[in-house]
Automatic annotation (TrEMBL):
Coiled coil, from the record: 112-146
Name under which the protein is recorded: Uncharacterized protein
Keyword annotations of the record: Coiled coil
Residue spans of biased composition, Polar residues class: 60-70
Length: 204
């Protein structure tokens, strides 16, 4: 159905009287019917191709998928040059293998000494930290003991002061009670003396 539509559109494009007459005259001038028919077929094919090139579905269908290039694939699969380690590069620049061995031994000795120095430094740091922690614990225990002793002393002093205050209050209460008794006894004695005087006066 799609191809029929394209043929109709291409046929319509060639039904123009002016273009058709010009084509016939050219073919007659060439005095060969085969050339005229070949030209017509070529024009129709070009028109169909032009119409198809504007159709998205046809373009997607007729587009050739990219294929792998053997040369490109070979280049990608070839082993890459690995950047040499600096020590390997240095070893290749040194012609004398003994000199390289001495240099490598010197480097290893430096690395070993650096590791040992770092280990000693780390051990010293750990030791100092432990000593600081131990000193902190001892100081904390000492301060805690001192605070406990001060609290006990304060509690004892407070208890002693409370005992003294209680004793004073008891003594004061006893003295006040004694004064009250003596005062009452004195007042009672005065009342009795006055009563006796009044009694003697009345008898006279």
């Amino acid at each position: 159905m799609f191809m029929n539509q394209l043929r109709r559109e291409s046929s319509v494009a060639h039904l123009n009287p002016d273009t058709e007459e010009a084509s016939v005259q050219d073919a007659v001038g060439a005095s060969t019917l085969e050339k005229y028919e070949a030209r017509i077929r070529r024009d129709v094919a070009n028109d169909i191709k032009a119409l198809l090139s504007r159709t998205k579905a046809y373009v997607q269908h007729s587009t050739t998928r990219p294929t792998s290039n053997p040369e490109h694939t070979k280049g990608l699969s070839a082993p890459k040059d690995v950047r040499m380690h600096p020590e390997t590069s240095l070893a290749r620049r040194l012609e004398d293998p003994v000199l390289w061995a001495k240099l490598r031994a010197f480097q290893l000795e430096e690395e070993r000494e650096a590791k040992e120095a770092a280990a000693v430094k780390e051990a010293q740091r750990i030791k100092e930290k432990k000593e600081q922690l131990q000193a902190y614990k001892e100081l904390r225990n000492q301060v805690s003991l001192q605070l406990m002793e001060e609290r006990n002393a304060a509690a004892k002093a407070e208890a002693a002061y409370a005992a003294q205050v209680s004793k004073y209050l008891k003594q004061k209460a006893a003295m006040d009670l004694q004064r009250q008794r003596e005062k009452r006894a004195s007042e009672k004695k005065k009342v009795e003396e006055l009563h006796d005087r009044f009694s003697v006066s009345n008898h006279r």
